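REVIEWER CHECKLIST
Item 1: Sequence provided? yes
Item 2: Single chain? yes
Item 3: Sequence as submitted:
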Amino acid sequence: MLQHTPSVRHLEIRVSLEQYTKRTHWRYHSAVDRAKASDDIVDRIFKNALAGVDTRSPLRSLQVYELDLSTAQVNLRKAVDTSRLQSLGLQKCWHAIDLLRGIRPTGLPLRMSMHSLSVIGRMYDKEERIDNAIDDLLLSFCGLEPLVIAGPSQEAHRPALTSIANHVATLRHLYLDCV
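Item 4: Structure as written out by the authors:
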C-alpha cells in the first residue's frame, strides 16, 4: 500500500479485528488469533519496507486503533522509524506498552521529535506493570505538548510524576486517567 504513496507523512490504522478475522476465516476467540490478524494487517500495509525494498517509512504521525501489538510491534518498528515520529496515538490497542518499550531517541545528543503522545487502553483488559516502559520513554526526551494517557485499572499505563516532570515546560494539555 505505502509503496504507491511514498510521500505519506500521516497514517491512521483503524481496524475491527473481529470483522477482519471473519473475512479471513480465522476465529476471533483467542489472543493468538488476534495477534495473528494484527501481524497480517501490519505486514500488508508495510509490505515493501518489511521486505527490505525501501527504507523505513518517513511517517511523522502514526495513529493505531484496536490492534494487538504483542507481536505486530516488532514489524511496526522495523517499518517505521519511531524515533522520528512527531505524533503517536495508540487507542484501544492490546499490549500498547510493548511498542512504547522499543521507542528510543537517536543521534548525539539523543533526540526525539515527538510532540504528541496519546495512549488509551482497553477498558476491560488489565495490563499489569512488568517494567517501567512508559516512564523510560517519557524520561528519554522532553518536548511533549499534549500528553493523554488513559487506561483505568491498567497499571502498565500509569506514569510516575517524575517522568511527566520532564515535559512540564512544554505541556499544553495533560490528561491522565490511569487509577
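Item 5: Key structural point noted by reviewer: The chain has one domain: 2-177.
Item 6: Recommendation: ____
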